[in-house]
Write a structure and sequence with these properties.
The complex is a heterodimer of chains A (about 110) and B (about 110). By secondary structure, chain A is mainly beta. Classes of the chains: A mainly beta (about 110), B mainly beta (about 110).
Chain lengths: ~110, ~110
């Protein structure tokens, strides 16, 4: 099992550009999450999906949209990137108690 | 979710036990104590969780005080690979999102 995979690993965008971060899990989990982590800080929740077909805002949803494409995949879209969105983005999935995290996408917006 | 308080950093000699404290004085009766760690810039990794009894697994032990207002994560024989940021999180059991603080940066020293 690959667990949680994220693409791309690194990305540099210019202000105003758009992009989609991809996340997939092969553990048949119902719940999936997107977090961001700024330097020296803990992770903050952007959006989550409790089950296929549902999404909910987290602590910092502004500037982002999400799509739960199917049970396996949960994508995060930046429609118009801003320098404040420079961060490391982590996707996670869970069933019951334990959350499993992907390796992260390191995004720089110039 | 209840908030937690952790020391920002700790050192531990290799081979010795690492004891990481966490205060959660406002924890509710249905909230569990979870521990995750983040090695370098990888995605967080689940370690252990508990409600009120002490718990042990292959990675660590969790000691929760009788009044449940604080807990200690114990790594019995710390190695250099245990150098990481350790997060103590209190939450209800299930698929709710995690709320991360800044955690404790543990440095294991040879």
């Amino acid at each position: 099992n690959a667990g949680v995979t994220q693409t791309p690993k690194f990305q540099v965008l210019k202000t105003g550009q758009s992009m989609t971060l991809q996340c997939a899990q092969d553990m048949n989990h119902n719940s999936m999450y997107w977090y961001r982590q700024d330097p020296g800080m803990g992770l903050r929740l952007i959006y989550y999906s409790a089950s296929e077909g549902t999404t909910d805002k987290g602590e910092v949803p502004n500037g982002y949209n999400v799509s739960r494409l199917n049970k396996r995949e949960f994508s995060l879209r930046l429609e118009s990137a801003a320098p404040s969105q420079t961060s490391v983005y982590f996707c996670a999935s869970s069933e019951a108690n334990e959350q499993y995290f992907g390796p992260g996408t390191r995004l720089t917006v110039t | 979710d209840a908030k937690t308080t952790q020391p920002p950093s700790m050192d531990c000699a290799e081979g010795r036990a690492a004891n990481l404290p966490c205060n959660h004085s406002t924890i509710s009766g249905n909230e569990y104590v979870y521990w995750y760690r983040q090695i370098h810039s990888q995605g967080p990794q689940y370690i252990i969780h508990g409600l009120k009894n002490n718990e042990t697994n292959e990675m660590a032990s969790l000691i929760i005080t009788e009044d449940r207002k604080s807990s200690t994560l114990i790594l019995p024989h710390a190695t250099l690979r245990d150098t990481a940021v350790y997060y103590c999180i209190v939450r209800v059991r299930g698929n709710t999102p995690l709320v991360f603080g800044k955690g404790t940066r543990l440095s294991v020293i040879a």
